[in-house]
Every structure is written in C-alpha cells, then in structure tokens.
Amino acid sequence: MFRAKQVTRTLTLRLTIHYTVLEIETVLKSATPRPKSLYSPCYERTLQATGYIIFEEEDETKMATSKEFRVAGKDMVDVICNYLDNIEERPPLSQVRPGYLKDLIPCEAPEKPESWEDVKKDIERVIMPGVTHWHSPHFHAYFGTGNSFPSILGDMLSDAISCIGFSWIASPACTELETVAMDWLGKMISLPETFLAGEQGLGGGVIQGSASESTVIALLAAKMRMIRKQQEIDPDLDQFDILPKLVAYTSDQSHSSVNRASMISSVRMRVLPTDERNALRGDTLIEAMKKDRKKGLLPTFVCATLGTTNSLAFDRLSEIGPACEDEDVWLHVDAAYAGSAFICPEYRSLLNGVEYASSFNFNPHKFLRVNFDLSAMWVKDKRDIVGAFYTDPVYLQHGHQGSVEDYRHWQIPLGRRFRALKLWFVLRMFGVEKLQEHIRHQVKLAREFKALVMSDQRFTIEAEVILGLVCFRLKGTNTQNKELLDKINKSGKIHMIGTELKGRYILRFAVCAATTESCHILYAWQVIQDCAIEICDGVNGYKNGGTLSNGVNGTAEACISPD
After folding, report:
1. Are strands 359-362 and 330-334 parallel, antiparallel or unpaired?
2. H or E stretch including 57?
3. Which residues is 461 bridged to in the sheet?
4. Burial status of residue 65 (CB atoms within 10 A of its CB: 0-12, 13-18, 19 or more)
5. Burial class of residue 184, CB neighbours in 10 A (0-12, 13-18, 19+)
6. In 189-316, which residue ranges form alpha helices assigned H by DSSP?
7. What is the C-alpha to C-alpha distance for residues 558 and 287, in angstroms, rounded to an integer?
8. What is the largest CA-CA distance in the chain?
C-alpha cells in the first residue's frame, strides 16, 4: 500500500488506476480503504498537489520480496548460531508432557499475515521447550545425527532452488552432482569399483532418505529379480505363485527396519541367532538356507549389518558373502552408523567382504557431519533396482532417456530433493582429512568413557568398543539397570537409552555431538555415578560381569577376530 503524509496527519492510502483527482482527494479526507492496484507517477504528482507526499510503498504480505527475506534470513542465521553456541545450557531431553504445544498456539491458522518478529518470538516460547537437543554434548542416546554449517548452507541453497529432481531433465545438476558426489564418497571408503558409476559402469550410487528406505528398496529389488528368474525357467508361473516361496534372512541383532521391510515386501523373514559377539556367522546362514531349499522355498535376500544398533556388532561378511554368492542370493549390507568410519584406513578392514554384496548402504547423516536426511546407497547392477521400480508415463519422458540417469527409477517416491548439494558442500569444505579427524576424535572419547567404566567395579562392559558406542551395565538385575537409566534421564543433565542383549538389560552411551569433548565425558560419568549411589546399596557383585573382552585397544582387528 502507499503511505501518504501531510503536516497534520499520516494515513494509509489505497488507489485504483481509474480514480479521478476528486476521488483521490475524497480518499485522503476520509481515509476510506479502497482496493489496491497499479500506481503511476501521475498520481504522485496529483497527491503532491493536494499537499501530500508519497515517501514509501508497503505490502500487506509479509516476506513478499527478497528485501524482507534478507533481513529475516540474516536474523535467522543469528538465531541458529545462538542456539548452537548455547545448546549446552539446555537440558538435552525435552521435559514437556504430551499435548503441551496445543495450549500455546491458536487452534486455527491466522487470517492475516504475521510479522517475522512475532514468529521469531514463538521459536523460544513454543518450539524450544519441546525440542530434544540432539546436538548437545550431553546427548548420548541412539546414534548421533550429523550437523554442520556447510551442510546447512547446502540445504539453504537446495530449498531456494526447490527443484523436484525425479529425472535428469527436471534439473540436470541435481542428477549429475548426485552421481559424482556418490562416486566421491564411494572412493573415500575404498568401495569396489563395481559399485561406482564411473563412465560406463553398471553400478552406481543414489541418495535415499534413510537406511530403512535402502533396505526396503534392496529387498523389493531382490524379490523382483528372483521372480523374473523363476519366470524365465517357467514362463507360465505368475509372480503371486512365486512370492510365497521367497525367503529373506537377517540376524536377531539387525535393526527393526529390516523386519518392516519384510512386512512391506510381503517376503517372509528368517531371524537367525548370533554368536557370543552378537554377530551373524556364515555357517548359521548356510544351515538356514539348506533347510529352506529342502522345503521347496527360495532363498532370496540376506541383510547383514556392520555396526548393529544394540551393541555395534559386525556380522561376518567374509563368511556370509561367499555363502550368498554360492546360492545366488542378494546380499544387502547395512552399515548405517559405522559406514562413515570406513573413510579412516584403520577401520576399512571392517568392510572386508563387501565385494560379495549386491547393495551397500550407510548414513552420512549419522557420523559424517551431513544433516538429516542423506542415506548413501550403492548397487552393483542398477538394472536390478531400475527393473523393480520402472514406470514411464508420457508426461515424464524426455529426449535424453537411456543416456542419463533418471533417479525416479531408483526409489519408491517420484520426487526428490537436491540433497547432493549438502553432501558436496561438506566434502569440499571439510575435506577428507577433517572428517577423519572428527571420527577419530569421537572414537577417542568413547574409549575414554570405557576406561572410566572399567575403573569402577560396580559396572561391567557388555560389548566390544570399536567406534563411538559403549555398552555397559550395573552389576545387578535388569530392573536395577532400568531404574538407573530412569534416574539418569530424569536428572535432566544427560540423555541415554537402554537396550537388551541376550536377555540382559544394558545402557548405551553414544558419543553423538560434534562439540563433545573430554570434559563432557567426565561430566556424564559423574552424573551416572551419582545416580547409581542409592541403587548400589542393594546390589551384589554380578558374577558374570566383565567376562567379555573389550578388544585390543578397541581396534577393528579385535572385532573381526575369528574366535
């Protein structure tokens, strides 16, 4: 709207292009609102002739131009920096009760635009009380999620471009940067060349939203590959005749998303027992597949895990891989958390055996400073994954089909964001060396915590400490350990979660935030000790505690030793 000013008063004026001078004077005198329309210099002269001076143009719509966005955007950067700089002062676990938010905001959206200042005030009042602060150095639950300023910058640009890169033509840079960045990442972990796109390879990488999606996609691709194979043997077979015979396999330590993939794909899943180190062994898999073949079933898919969620156990790829190759079974390797560590030469041996896999996945958004969501997935033969998801309606076709990648055929949804930007920004602005330093630092901190646990006879280490996770427990009952965890979280000082390993309830301490330092490890251990004091009065020595080896200085070789 135009703001008109006179010596005696200031008021708002709205004009339409058909107004006469008399009508303009009437509007000025009455200040009656009129519909806004176009404005031309002649009206400015007319208004000046009546004693008014036009000095500013305003728009009722907030954030309508880049001028307003520049102001708010710079302000938002300050909000983000202040939040991250002072995150340590906030309780890591949100203390609100369910339903807290609906009492803080209106029950309906506003009819008129609100100012950025009003919205900004509600970030602290409405949002922050209900945030669990994953990037606090006092957050030690689950596994960490990546965060860095280069990644945030990449997401900002992706949001501004706001393309939907379902095919090459929809935004060529979106597709081609993803292909190149995934090859960069594959080379950083010394992935076999058969997984890389290269110049003319059958392999290649694709960015998915999560490791869960990658497992579903791999299982669906394996399912369709086996169905096509059986139909080649007997063309009269319908896929629904074949489907009940398909069998997938995983360990009792694999992520819950593997079982969910079975539900989605309608392929039955055999959950196999693990050894004393919580790892799936080759002989266990071979025996299960032999039994199923005798029943007339078709072993189709195996999901092996490198770095389980429960205890960071590593399935024996060197045994599982040859078994899958002999049976012509799709092997998918899920290294969601641990995979980032493979950029460090000292941990690359944990990936040995990946050459037998049909697909491999890890999450840079966990351990590699990339913000969620960015899950890296590679396949040896893209024809298998494209064959499972290929549809080609006329409205999606373009003149370069067949000579370029159309990533819509590599995933479940059609649309996809320009996620490669944040990966590209992180790889360039940190470089491999700085990312390696980050991983080594977090592993060092985990070993510091392990040493503190081992120095206290009330506690035992329950699994080998290889990367940034320490599994431990109080020498006592499962109930007492659950009570200890409850006290820790209710303290509001640190946040942890528990899990169960072969019937024993354990506590998981994960080094998560990139800002975590030795002082935070000592602080967390003090909190744990303080919470344990009143529980330990009734705890007897746990005879079986401490029987597990903690590895040789936590090296990869200790984890993959045969016995």
Report:
1. parallel
2. strand 53-57
3. 472
4. exposed
5. middle
6. 211-233, 239-242, 256-265, 282-294
7. 26
8. 99
**Dihedral over alpha carbons 239, 240, 244, 250 (to 10 degrees):** 50
Confirm if 2 and 11 have CB atoms less than 8 A apart.
no
Chain centroid to CA 341: how far?
A: 16
Q: How buried is residue 395: exposed, middle or buried, by Cβ count under 10 Å (0-12/13-18/19+)? A: exposed
| Neighbouring C-beta atoms of residue 562, cutoff 10 Å | 7
pLDDT tens-digit map of 321-352: 999 999 999 999 999 999 999 999 999 999 99
- The b-or-e profile of 292-304 (16+ CB within 10 A means b, else e) is beeeebbbbbbbb
pTM, two decimals, is 0.84
φ/ψ of residue 433, rounded to 5: -60, -45
Task: Please tell me the predicted confidence (pLDDT) of residue 449.
Answer: 98
DSSP class per residue in 486-510: HHHHHTTS-B-EEEEETTEEEEEEE
Residue 489: closest CA among 141, 191, 248, 151: 141
Secondary structure letter of residue 417 according to DSSP: -
Give the strand pairing for 2-5 and 53-57. antiparallel
Residue 254: count of CB within 10 angstroms of its CB = 25
For residue 44, give the H/E element and its range.
helix 41-49
pLDDT digits (tens, 9 = 90+) for 49-87: 444 444 444 555 577 789 999 999 999 999 999 999 999
The two tokens of residue 26 are 């009437």
Q: Would residue 60 be called left, alpha or beta, if left means φ above 0 and alpha means ψ between -120 and 50 degrees?
A: alpha
Cα 534 to Cα 455, 472, 480, 537, distances in angstroms = 19, 18, 11, 6
Structure tokens at 126: 């409405």
Percent helix, strand and coil across the chain, each to the nearest 5: 45, 15, 40
> Hey, what are 519's tokens?
């002082």
Element counts in the chain: helices (H) and strands (E): 17, 14
Instruction: Using a pLDDT cut of 90, give the percent of the chain over it.
Output: 78
C-alpha 369: how far from chain center: 11
How far is Cα 37 from Cα 331, in angstroms, rounded to an integer? 64
